[in-house]
Design brief:
alpha/beta; Glutaredoxin; Ubiquitin-like (UB roll); 38% helix; globular
């Protein structure tokens, strides 16, 4: 049935948390109240990506892009835009935030945030209702699976993947075709498996979750193609239990695919059968590692084991197993439909295609972005992300989460791909990209990630279990003013030992934030050790708030704001801080309107 208008409402987790479900219901109620249900359809989609401006509502065919919509705006949107044909100006994106609204951008394609993006993985997110299989099919969904089953042989699929240059998007960037080929050619068992790693645990990362929420059928289709290629009849999606929306949409998608003969016995009437199960993870970061993930699926404690043998030949229940993450699988249908040569035309010589990043931190336009490999960090931060808020200066960006490292200002114009990031001491990782400004302390950043990885270590091997704790202890001591010059070499030595001797990727990469920040910001470490000072004002134990008598007017605001009564002084007379009682909370510093208080 064709409608006159379509209202697309973002239904990703971020917008749902800002009452997008209520917006969706209110819009449906208003359409019904105006008796427009035969002319206008309201659709809940996946994430549009522009999370900073959510919740988002888009109206077709005009392509009008509304931002920061509230449930109470539904009535006006229907009455003005749908009934009267007049856009609601106050809800249209205004990049310059000028009061006369002269810079309004009506259509998504004209918004700077989207202009340098190229969507392959996220091609359907924000475009379709992820809970309606017919909408996925209408955008060439399952056409790649049909092509594979009836027009291709397993070796043909491997060849297209090889031509595409697609590498695993989960971290290491291993060639996808090679991994699939190992499993296809494995002869140790006729039973084989396909596994999707959806255990996305990096702080600030939500790429895979959003893909599953907005386009679950693309993952089912890709896994089924993998099953056909390697000779597997069973697949498992391992996803952490705290992703309820993604899990629910996966369940709906699996049910729909089975009902339409696209999953299960004799797919599309062929002699090929393949089924998929969902397995929930308890949120252990170490289960992102292949062997720990497989152990968890088997019902065991999620702990890594030494490799070789590798999962491609000895994986789930010791059977040959293909494991890829969500983003890798999401590329597969497009590689099959458009060809490996098309995919390899995107990106750089060694890193083909696109990469999805969760752009967060000190950035104006945070959100989910997909860009061609080879784009520079400057383009991501300033063209897509809109730069640093408040006119602050860019300091560094952490890529690869707890396993990655920092990229500094001098490398803003370096093309982002696997090899270049490795040269800089970082990694691509799954795609977390956290931007930091001059108010961030790099020692504190390293300490934050070490705290995370120490907590998430399975404890199986001593280099990770002991080394991580030792690194954190040294960093903590430095941040509290107890550091010594010798600590710098200790940090380097322990980091090197962990990288060389840890059992799995978690332990091997856990020191990366320390090694990376030491590489580019050793002067900050020395400042903490020698001068007992944190210039960024983050390490509380090194802070000292001082009231300058020549600027203090005796307004008493600081004294009233101090939670421990550490400030004394008569009204209209300079005040003083008792350093022995001060808890370094900064309440006085924030409250002073006369800039009479400094921190250092």
């Amino acid at each position: 049935m064709a409608y006159r208008s379509y209202i697309l409402v973002c239904g990703g987790t971020g917008c749902e948390s800002s009452h997008a479900d209520k917006i969706y219901q209110n819009l449906k109620n208003e359409i019904e109240a105006n008796q427009l249900f035969a002319q206008v359809q309201v659709i809940k989609t996946g994430c549009f990506g522009f999370c900073e401006q959510g919740p988002i509502v888009k109206i077709l065919p005009e392509n009008t892009f509304y931002v920061q919509v509230k449930p109470e705006d539904a009535k006006e949107l229907v009455e003005e835009h749908i009934v009267k044909g007049r856009p609601v100006q106050r809800l249209i994106y205004n990049p310059n935030e000028d009061k006369n609204r002269s810079s309004l951008v009506t259509e998504e394609k004209d918004i700077q945030f989207y202009q340098k993006q190229f969507r392959v993985v996220l091609r359907n997110c924000g475009m379709i209702d992820p809970e309606v299989i017919e909408e996925y099919i209408a955008r060439d969904g399952y056409a790649a699976l049909e092509k594979v089953i009836f027009d291709m042989k397993p070796d043909d699929v491997i060849e297209e993947l090889k031509k595409s240059g697609l590498r695993g998007r989960g971290g290491a960037g291993f060639p996808t075709w090679m991994k699939w080929n190992f499993t296809k050619n494995a002869t140790n068992s006729e039973t084989k498996y396909v596994v999707c790693n959806a255990d996305e645990g990096d702080p600030g990362a939500y790429m895979d979750r959003s893909t599953l929420e907005g386009d679950p059928h693309s993952i089912l289709e890709a896994m089924t193609i993998a099953g056909f290629t390697v000779g597997a009849q069973k697949g498992f999606i391992y996803i952490r239990a705290e992703y309820p929306l993604a899990i629910n949409r996966l369940k709906i998608a699996i049910k729909q695919a089975k009902e339409m003969g696209l999953l299960g016995e004799n797919i599309l009437g062929s002699d090929f059968s393949f089924d998929i199960e969902i397995r929930l993870g308890a949120g252990a970061f170490v289960c992102g590692e292949e062997t720990a993930l497989l152990a968890s699926i088997e019902g065991k404690r999620g702990m890594p084991i030494p490799r070789p043998p590798f999962p491609a030949t000895h994986g789930l229940w010791k059977k040959p197993t293909v494991i890829n993450n969500v983003e890798t699988y999401a590329n597969i249908p497009m590689v099959i439909l458009k060809g490996g040569d098309w995919f390899s035309s995107i990106g750089t010589e060694s890193s083909k295609g696109t990469k999805v990043f969760a752009l967060t931190g000190k950035i104006k336009n945070s959100g989910l972005i997909e860009v061609p490999m080879g784009i520079t960090l400057r383009e991501i931060i300033y063209d897509i992300g809109g730069g640093i808020p408040g006119g602050r200066k860019f300091k560094a960006a952490q890529s690869g989460g707890p396993s990655g490292g920092v990229i500094t200002e001098e490398f803003l114009d370096t093309p982002i791909d696997y090899e270049n990031l490795a040269k800089l001491g970082s990694i691509m990782g799954s795609g977390g990209l956290i931007v930091m400004d001059e108010d961030d302390c790099m020692l504190d950043i390293a300490k934050f990630y070490l705290d995370f990885t120490v907590d998430e270590s399975c404890g199986k091997c001593a280099p990770c279990r002991i080394g991580g704790k030792q690194l954190y202890g040294i960093l903590d001591g430095i941040s509290k003013g107890n550091g010594e010059i010798e600590d710098i070499q200790k940090l380097k030595d322990i980091s090197l030992a962990m990288q060389r001797a840890s059992l799995c990727g978690l332990g091997q990469t856990a020191p990366n934030p320390v090694a990376s920040t030491l590489r580019y910001f050793e002067n900050e470490y020395m400042e903490h050790i020698v001068d007992k000072k944190c210039s960024a004002g983050v390490c509380k134990d090194l802070l000292q708030f001082v009231i300058h008598k020549d600027k203090c007017v005796g307004c008493t605001v600081c004294a009233r704001k101090c939670p421990v009564n550490a400030i004394s002084g008569e009204r209209k007379q300079p005040h003083e801080i008792d350093q022995s009682a001060c808890i370094k909370c900064g309440a006085c510093y924030e409250a002073c309107k006369f800039q009479a208080i400094t921190r250092g």
